[in-house]
Write a structure and sequence with these properties.
- The structure holds 3 protein chains of 3 kinds.
- By secondary structure, chain A is mostly helical.
- Chain A folds into 2 domains: about 150 residues, no CATH class; about 80 residues, no CATH class.
- Chain A is built from 9 helices and no strands.
- Chain B is built from 6 helices and 2 strands.
- In chain B, helix 1 crosses helix 3.
- Chain C is α/β, with parallel strands linked by helices.
- Chain C has a 6-stranded mixed beta sheet with strand order 6-7-8-3-9-10, with helices on both faces.
- In chain C, helix 5 crosses helix 6 and helix 14 runs parallel beside helix 15.
- The chains are: A mainly alpha, B mainly alpha, C alpha/beta.
- Chains in contact: A-B, A-C, B-C.
- Chains A and B meet through helix 1, helix 3, helix 4, helix 5 and helix 6 of A and helix 1, helix 2, helix 3, helix 5 and helix 6 of B.
């Protein structure tokens, strides 16, 4: 998932890529809240189906599969722990299918909407999205600097790893296990010094450019929400409302406290 | 003095007609905001690099990721010793994670609560000018943010809370890493002083 | 116009002033060159003028520094930048945005300029600097020359009537340097006062009206450009040459002797899914020579060094050393590669530790003596206990080369080792490269620095190389030489020399 921001292009025909980042964020927040509140599998099902379609429409099947495998593995390991726990202390963990199903559906729902955003976000377009949010300079300056420097530092990290190979101490899982402190040192000392130097250079340029002269910027161009964004948001709200209605009729709002 | 003015083509205003307004002094100098942004980027890249080298979810990667996060946070708080640095850093990282990866839509307020709690601890322990204050603040931040996020996980898995066992073990390993990071961060600050980059 | 009258500056916590009693004037429509050895106070002069010395470094300024008739001490740095723009050595480090248009707009957006006016100014500088084809490009995909143009356009869009350029040619190839000279000539003709701080002198012949030479914080000589034609003055202050003849046409492909050779055969490589930068090419690198690796930016010079040592994996191709097929990683064990960015290559707590960590096992028993000898050779013995990251750019450059030498390599690859170096340090690096070659090593020098190429190189390979077709190398115990004895003619093409051709 995180690797998505290395890529600078979206697969052709990716639906989430055509949406404004604010719309995608809204979908994430709405899904997370719905997932936490809803506890009936029947209520979660429509949200889950639509979110799966949304994730798949990013046309990045390989990365979606990897994310699913990781989640299944984690849940699998947890289940093994529960089985072991039951052997020692049976009253601590119940093995009812329903108790496993609801958390699983929630996790998958949240994963789907996150994948929709992560697999369609490009670092370059994020700065413009950030401008659209009209944040105060106190938050806008460090946030835009962070976005600006993620690609630079990724490239730096690559060069540091190359330099380590040249110097004869390549970083591999094995060397990290055998010499963890040394490995972290040789990797991060150059990166941190580079970061400190970059911040000095950029601070000088910022003073000269007049960055921070006012409390907010006047963007010369900005993203506007399209009718597609409004339609998707409205559909998401309708769907969530429908799910809450199903929950009210079938599952109640006990917050699942057993 | 010359300035460009609206109009086509750009026009130059001579010295005597130009006036430069007096600026207000700011609580947060721009250079410090930039350091916070740069460190947030380094932390994000560091986690990614460790995950790539260490191979994703394994105890060693978890230890290393947390250790590096805490170390870099300790260095940042020494570099920008100002009330609110920790909260701003956490807020900025969370906003970018949200924009970039959609992750933590619900975690953002939780992290901010943990950061504010830590600011209080730093104040009580002598403020940002004292190393002990910074170390305690970072330790409390890590503990409280991990505790609160476990609470959120419980909300997601409340029907089968035993599923939290794996996450709890991972959080515990992560916290051990964070404590190791406190020590390595302190050593790193000493090294930066030797290099003349962080001053007493 | 820029004027300094008896101006001095000292940094906080430093007892000695970095600049003492400087007097300098740059009139409208004039170009003044400020030069001098590393650490002489040139950058401090820049900071005195653009206000960073006072506002960013919080130093102490005495005397008079005026820009456009106004005292810089009475203005804020952001306001000074509308009077005098500053272009730094590494333009990318001063970029705030990720695409060209946004970068130019940045200064205006913070000054609350109305969007239509910002757009008009972007269009104006885009036309002036020829940026229209790249306005929507990511800054990360631009060449060094393009980055510099974007930075210059962004500065000039604020409307300053004076300009300072700090080491503007350090990362530029000769063609981009020529283009920069033309741009500056146009700005000069429009009446902009320009101060250029640079080690490289030759490109300013016919462009600079005046030269000021600094040493130990003081301006020690001032006069017309011809002042730096004085060889004794250049020697005294470690300056670079004032006249450089482009050595590239004279540098022929490496001559094969009967000695040892490294051959890279049938190489094919592409970055990701892009067009291949090497498509079935071959080359021979004889030992005992300093070989320049020439070519425009982005042609694949650094990539070639990475492929040679296995740091990048080739899609196709193989490496032959002394007639034996080898893995590139085997060459890496026998090679020192000095990358362009020195910061990435320094990991230890002291300069001495950095050298000791690079020594081979057989030198470990007497490691301190070996390390100190090397430090003395590169004039950095007095810095042995300093933190490597606290050194200046030139000192770091010498340290990483010393680390490279500590390994006692058979192959030394230097990637742009002289950017930002003064004449004396450039000469030191050229001498060391030649000494390596004389000891039998193969030295591969990737550089745009015409002066370094002319001083150090004996021959050169120019990229892109021509595509060749070869048969596969045989997979039995016979050596390549046995199958395909080499031709030793200097005039022969590269593909003729490669095993399998």
């Amino acid at each position: 998932m995180q690797a998505s921001f290395i890529s600078n292009t979206n697969p052709p025909g990716s639906f989430p890529a055509t949406l404004d980042v604010r719309t995608k964020l809204f979908l994430c927040v709405l899904s997370s809240l719905s997932a936490i509140i809803l506890s009936s599998p029947l209520a979660l099902a429509p949200l889950l189906a639509v979110s799966a379609l949304y994730a798949l429409s990013s046309k990045n099947i390989k990365k979606i599969l990897i994310a699913y495998v990781v989640i299944f593995l984690m849940l699998g390991v947890s289940t093994i722990f529960i089985v072991l726990l039951r052997l020692v202390c049976p009253e601590l963990a119940a093995m009812e299918f329903r108790n496993f199903l609801t958390p699983f559906l929630r996790i998958i729902l949240m994963l789907n909407v996150v994948l929709g955003l992560a697999l369609s976000s490009r670092v370059q377009s994020l700065l413009m999205a950030l401008k659209s949010l009209r944040l105060p300079s106190l938050i806008y300056i460090p946030t835009s600097v962070m976005i600006r420097f993620i690609p630079t530092f990724l490239n730096d990290a690559k060069q540091v790893l190359q330099a380590l190979k040249i110097r004869g101490y390549p970083l591999t899982p094995r060397t990290m296990f055998m010499h963890p402190l040394h490995s972290l040192r040789v990797l991060f000392v150059p990166l941190v010094f580079r970061a400190l130097r970059s911040s000095d250079d950029l601070a000088m340029a910022a003073e000269l450019k007049g960055v921070g002269l006012s409390n907010s910027i006047v963007p010369y161009r900005q993203q506007t929400l399209q009718s597609r964004d409004l339609a998707v948001s409205a559909f998401a709200v309708l769907l969530a409302t429908a799910s809450f209605t199903i929950q009210a009729y079938h599952g109640g709002f006990s917050m699942g406290m057993h | 003095m010359y300035r460009m003015e609206p109009g086509n083509p750009p026009r130059i205003i001579p010295d005597d007609q130009a006036s430069l307004p007096k600026r207000k002094s700011r609580h947060w100098p721009v250079r410090e905001l930039i350091v916070i942004g740069i460190f947030a980027a380094v932390v994000k890249v560091a986690s990614l690099v460790i995950a790539l080298i260490g191979g994703g979810m394994n105890p060693l990667t978890l230890l290393a990721k947390n250790a590096v996060f805490t170390s870099l946070l300790v260095v940042l708080l020494h570099k920008v010793p100002r009330l609110g640095t920790l909260t701003l850093f956490i807020g900025v990282s969370a906003i970018v994670s949200l924009l970039l990866m959609g992750s933590g839509a619900i975690l953002l307020p939780v992290s901010l609560v943990a950061a504010l709690l830590s600011e209080l601890v730093i104040l009580l322990a002598g403020g940002y000018r004292r190393t002990i204050g910074i170390m305690m603040g970072v330790a409390v931040y890590d503990l409280s943010s991990k505790g609160l996020s476990l609470g959120l996980s419980w909300l997601v898995m409340r029907e089968q809370s035993a599923l939290l066992i794996t996450i709890s073990i991972m959080v515990a390993i992560g916290y051990i890493g964070a404590l190791i990071g406190l020590g390595s961060g302190h050593l790193f600050v000493k090294e930066l002083r030797h290099a003349g980059i962080v001053h007493q | 116009m820029i004027r300094l009258q008896d101006a001095s500056f000292s940094y906080p916590f430093h007892s000695e002033p970095a600049v003492k009693g400087a007097n300098l004037t740059v009139a409208p429509g004039e170009i003044v060159l400020l030069t001098g050895p590393s650490g002489c106070g040139k950058s401090t002069m820049v900071r005195m003028i653009n206000g960073l010395g006072l506002h960013h470094f919080r130093g102490n300024l005495s005397g008079q520094v005026t820009v456009g008739g106004r005292q810089v001490s009475e203005l804020e740095a952001a306001d000074i930048s509308t009077l005098v723009g500053t272009l730094f050595q590494d333009p990318e480090s001063q970029f705030f945005a990720l695409d060209v248009c946004d970068e130019i707009a940045m200064g205006h957006e913070w000054r609350q300029t109305p969007p239509r006016e910002t757009e008009r100014r972007i269009q104006h500088v885009a036309d002036e600097f020829g940026l229209n084809p790249i306005l929507d490009r990511s800054i990360l995909t631009l060449s060094e020359g393009q980055k510099q143009k974007v930075a210059l356009a962004s500065i000039m869009s604020l409307g300053p009537r004076a300009l300072i350029l700090d080491e503007p040619t350090a990362n530029l190839d000769p063609e981009s340097t020529e283009a920069l000279a033309k741009t500056l000539s146009a700005l000069k003709a429009k009446g902009v006062a320009i101060l250029i701080v640079d080690h490289r002198l030759y490109w300013l012949r016919g462009l600079a009206d005046k030269v000021a030479v600094m040493d130990k914080g003081q301006i020690v000589a001032q006069g017309p450009f011809e002042l730096v034609d004085d060889a004794s003055l250049r020697r005294r202050y470690g300056l670079r040459k004032s006249h450089v003849v482009d050595p590239r046409p004279e540098l022929l492909p490496p001559e094969l002797t009967n000695g040892h050779t490294i051959s890279l055969c049938n190489l094919t490589y592409a970055h990701g899914r892009q067009e291949p930068i090497f498509s079935n090419v071959s080359m021979d690198l004889p030992m005992g020579q300093v070989i320049g690796l020439l070519g425009a930016n982005g042609v694949g010079k650094t990539t070639l060094a990475m492929l040679l040592t296995g740091l990048n994996k080739a899609e196709k191709g193989y490496l032959v050393i002394d007639g034996q097929k080898r893995k590139p990683s085997e060459l890496l064990n026998r090679a020192s590669v000095i990358l362009q960015n020195t910061d990435h290559q320094l990991h230890m707590k002291t300069v001495l530790d950095e050298i000791i960590a690079s020594l081979p096992r057989e030198k470990k028993p007497d490691q301190k003596r070996h390390a100190l000898t090397l430090l003395a050779k590169y004039n950095i013995a007095h810095l042995a206990q300093r933190h490597p990251q606290s050194l200046s750019g030139g000192e770091k450059q010498r340290l990483v080369i010393a680390c490279g030498e500590a390994k006692d390599p058979d192959v030394l690859i230097l990637d742009e080792p002289s950017s930002g170096l003064d004449g004396a340090n450039m000469q030191l690096i050229a001498d060391c490269a030649r000494e390596f070659a004389q000891r039998g090593a193969c030295v591969l020098l990737i550089s745009h620095d015409l002066e370094l190429l002319g001083t150090a190189c004996w021959c050169a390979l120019t990229l892109p190389l021509k595509t060749t077709t070869h048969k596969e190398f045989p997979h039995d115990n016979k050596t390549a030489a046995e199958y395909h004895p080499r031709k030793d003619s200097r005039k022969s093409q590269h593909h003729d020399r490669c095993p399998g051709s």
